[in-house]
Specification:
Number of helices: 12
Number of strands: 4
Distance between the termini: 71 Å
Structural class: alpha+beta
CATH class: Mainly Alpha
Number of domains: 1
Largest sheet: 4 strands, antiparallel
CATH topology: Outer membrane efflux proteins (OEP)
Radius of gyration: 37 Å
Helix content: 55-70%
């Protein structure tokens, strides 16, 4: 072996080092964030005529509060039972487990792509025995290090693929945060639905009992010739109507509890008192709306869409690099001998080095089609990113509009329920004094029950809208700051 030949492995190492340290040219287009496809302000909330003014104090407190993204869910929700359910759901919910597993999968894919940027060196031992035509045997044994076909990434193809995998990995993390936000809001809304069902069921039971008493009194009057058979039929109809509502509400509560169990991912025993409901429920502090541009950093689903857009942008670089020459190296260094026992003797050192350059000439339009597909994927990513912003804008605007009106709607609904309750008492008093017919009492009973149920439903809508506003403003994925 000549001195020049002995120095060849050093030359090979020098080439590899230069390839690794010299960097590469990126052919990916420079990323530019698309312009905000929504207005720079949320639309003003609806308002009632001057005869029913808005409450300025509530609006002022909402404008001065902490942003939703800065309030961990442990601090936003005050109900200890609800917080324990949310914590249990974060441990057991299967959809969240899938999101976490997707992160691990994306991380592994990124590591695979990243490994393509460095040489893959293996240690191997091979032996070969060949029988010649004259019956002789030729043997060869090789042991040493080998470098598989390693691409010198002068045009950034491998780097672009690695960048795309990194962006998809980051997108999977944002998807997990988005899934957590959705899960927390879903558990809260399901829990409040169960409370509303429980309250409405208790109301239906009380109404049924009241109507049973009314039916008994009507039957007594009928026996004494004071009431008619029509009065009996009408009173019995109201009793059966209350039983129908009671059965329907019991079914709704059972189904909502089942939905809560599915979200939590484990058996749940709420042990609610018979009269437990939404009365006095306070979800969390008033939240400022902020600006639409803040959603870009506050909403994980928007950040996920942007990371996917960045990945599509990087794939264009890889598709462009496919048009340029691809240079790959294959090398090995070790020991070679025709005798296994003398494999590591002096003078058996051997090495090989192969360089290959491939320039696409004719591929039937494959590379151009890949580039066109990558560009189309970027356009799809832009559209999806813009739609995610528009969807977030609409969700926040809807929640703000609901917040502006649901409070007044609840006040009006409560006032109506109080008026219906007074109407029922007066109608019953007038009937007992013979001033009016029993039909007025029955109509007042029916209206009172309907209004009371509607009051609970409006209160539920108001509470769930507070949860929704917290969610759509990006709250729910930050952890509490240690004190």
């Amino acid at each position: 072996m000549t001195a020049a030949a002995a120095r060849m492995p050093r030359a090979v190492l020098a080439v590899l080092a230069g390839a690794l340290l010299g960097g590469c040219i990126s052919l990916a287009p420079e990323y530019e964030r698309p312009a905000l496809p929504v207005a720079d302000r949320y639309p003003p909330p609806p308002s009632l005529p001057a005869s029913a003014p808005l409450a300025p104090a509530a609006a002022a407190s909402a404008a001065a509060g902490r942003a939703a993204v800065d309030i961990p869910w442990q601090q936003f929700f005050g109900d200890e039972r609800l917080k324990s359910l949310i914590a249990l759901a974060l441990q057991n919910n299967r959809d969240l487990r899938v999101a976490v597993a997707n992160i691990e999968q994306a991380r592994a894919v990124y590591q695979i792509r990243r490994a393509d940027q460095v040489p893959n060196i293996n240690l191997g031992v091979t032996g070969n025995r060949l029988t010649n035509a004259d019956g002789g045997i030729t043997a060869s044994y090789v042991a040493g290090l080998s470098l598989a076909s390693f691409e010198l990434d002068f045009f950034g193809r491998v780097k672009s693929l690695s960048d795309a995998a990194l962006e998809l990995y980051l997108a999977s993390e944002e998807a997990r945060r988005s899934a957590q936000i959705t899960l927390i809001a879903s558990v809260a809304n399901a829990y409040y639905s169960v409370l509303a069902d429980n309250e409405q069921l208790a109301l239906a039971i009380r109404t049924s009992q009241t109507r049973e008493v009314s039916l008994q009194l009507t039957q007594l009057k009928f026996d004494n010739g004071v009431a008619s058979e029509l009065d009996i039929a009408q009173a019995r109809s109201l009793v059966e109507g209350a039983r129908v509502a009671q059965a329907a509400l019991a079914r709704m509560r059972a189904q909502d509890e089942n939905a809560l169990v599915l979200l939590v991912g484990a058996p749940v025993k709420l042990d609610l008192a018979p009269d437990a409901g939404l009365v006095g429920t306070q979800v969390g502090p008033d939240l400022p709306a902020g600006l639409p541009s803040e959603l870009l950093t506050h909403r994980p689903d928007i950040r996920q869409a942007e990371q996917q857009l960045r990945a599509a942008n990087a794939n264009i670089g890889a598709a462009r690099a496919a048009f340029f020459p691809r240079i790959s190296l294959t090398a090995s260094a070790g020991f070679a001998s025709g005798d296994l026992l003398g494999l590591f003797d002096s003078g058996t050192l051997a090495w090989s080095f192969t360089g290959q350059l491939l320039q696409p000439i004719f591929d039937g339009g494959r590379n151009q089609a890949n580039l066109d597909a990558a560009r189309a994927a970027r356009e799809i990513g832009v559209a999806q990113y813009e739609k995610s912003i528009q969807t977030a804008f609409r969700e926040v605007a809807d929640a703000l509009a609901a917040r502006a009106m649901l409070g007044q709607q609840l006040d009006a609904q409560r006032a109506q329920a109080q008026a219906e309750e007074l109407r029922f008492r007066l109608a019953e008093l007038r009937y007992r004094n013979g001033v009016t017919s029993f039909l007025d009492v029955l109509d007042a009973q029916r209206s009172l029950f309907t209004t009371q149920l509607a009051t609970v439903q409006v209160q539920l809508s108001k509470i769930q809208n507070e949860v929704t506003l917290y969610k759509v403003l990006g709250g729910g994925w930050t952890e509490p700051v240690a004190q």
